[in-house]
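Example for tutorial group B:
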């Protein structure tokens, strides 16, 4: 199949290359309006769907492993009744028009929760301005999935006071280390291209331990949106209590249709690493293509960000091999139009520079 003629592949690669700068900017902006840590228990929720919600799942692995804050990601049409005045609700919608997130915004307001909005504009940003809710505005004009650096950095900045020490130097260090890795991933002989070639036409399954399951989901969604093909993700060790039974029974003729990518972090518990190795041996014995993919060994955040850029580039190489343009996602827009969920913007959106800084908590 001929290569795509549009500039979509070039645009998506340029956006992937901008990840370190976006991470730094998002963290800085989030830190300016950070949620002060408290001695009393609070509940922190992040509401978001699609490319906006994935940033919350990525952040959760770091936040829950390194702080005493449980981070609950909301991906439903009905916010839970547990949201209360003791809740801190972060609402991430790149467009600002995601109706599920708008519903969470309104529900959090009725419950008296403290809210912060992350958006590039739209109805959600307008509501934040109306209600004097703090806003972390994200630069507009991006595909929502390409705003992940701003949103992930923003969430880490907003929650920075809850960490034992500030992540400012750490985020800067990670950004510096990831820049040359992005260049490596973009190369035709680099690790991303190699993984894409080995996946080939097979259905990819992306597996990762619980702390990195958001990264596995990100690989899956990037393959689906950029490469226009199905993918599957699952969580270790949960899959050892169900999926392994199906893998053990997979016929040899069917096994060649699948590729399993395991995102392996050396800092995982020994039993997790041993179980993953056992699974890999079983899959190979059944004839399944297995691609162990080690993540950066030293820093959990670096492992996350480097794994993020690797997965993004794998999806772009898969798109290139299939001759599809990674940029458009027309099916999403068509679905929203058909269901009438494209809400018009309620007023003009604040600019990136016009961040709302809270002078007092607005409930």
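The residue assignment follows.
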């Amino acid at each position: 199949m001929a290569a795509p003629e549009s500039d979509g592949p070039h645009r998506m690669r340029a956006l992937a290359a901008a990840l370190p700068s976006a991470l730094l900017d998002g963290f800085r902006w989030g830190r300016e309006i950070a949620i002060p840590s408290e001695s009393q228990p609070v509940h922190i929720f992040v509401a978001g769907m699609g490319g906006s919600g994935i940033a919350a799942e990525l952040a959760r692995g770091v936040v829950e492993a390194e702080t005493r804050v449980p981070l609950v990601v909301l991906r439903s049409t009905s916010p839970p009744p547990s949201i209360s005045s003791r809740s801190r609700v972060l609402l991430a919608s790149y467009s600002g028009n995601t109706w599920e997130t708008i519903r969470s915004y309104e529900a959090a307001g009725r419950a008296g929760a403290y809210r912060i909005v992350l958006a590039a504009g739209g109805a959600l940003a307008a509501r934040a301005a109306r209600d004097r809710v703090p806003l972390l505005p994200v630069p507009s004009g991006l595909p929502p999935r390409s705003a992940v650096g701003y949103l992930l950095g923003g969430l880490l900045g907003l929650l920075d006071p809850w960490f034992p020490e500030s992540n400012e130097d750490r985020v800067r260090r990670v950004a510096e280390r990831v820049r040359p890795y992005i260049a490596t991933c973009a190369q035709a002989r680099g690790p991303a291209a190699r993984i894409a070639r080995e996946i080939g036409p097979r259905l990819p399954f992306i597996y990762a331990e619980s702390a990195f399951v958001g990264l596995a989901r990100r690989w899956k969604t990037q393959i689906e949106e950029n490469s226009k093909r199905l993918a599957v993700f699952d969580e270790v060790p949960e899959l050892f209590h169900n999926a392994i039974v199906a893998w053990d029974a997979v016929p040899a003729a069917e096994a060649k249709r699948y590729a399993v990518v395991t995102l392996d972090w050396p800092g995982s518990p020994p039993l997790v690493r041993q179980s993953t190795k056992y699974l890999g041996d079983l899959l190979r014995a059944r004839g399944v293509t297995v691609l162990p993919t080690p993540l950066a060994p030293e820093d959990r955040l670096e492992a996350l960000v480097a794994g993020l850029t690797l997965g993004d580039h794998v999806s772009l190489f898969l798109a290139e091999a299939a001759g599809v343009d990674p940029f458009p996602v027309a099916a999403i827009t068509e679905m929203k139009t058909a269901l009438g969920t494209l809400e018009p913007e309620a007023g003009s959106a604040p600019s990136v520079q016009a961040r709302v800084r809270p002078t007092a908590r607005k409930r």
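The chain has a mean pLDDT of 91. Compare this with the pattern of hydrophobic and polar residues in the output above.
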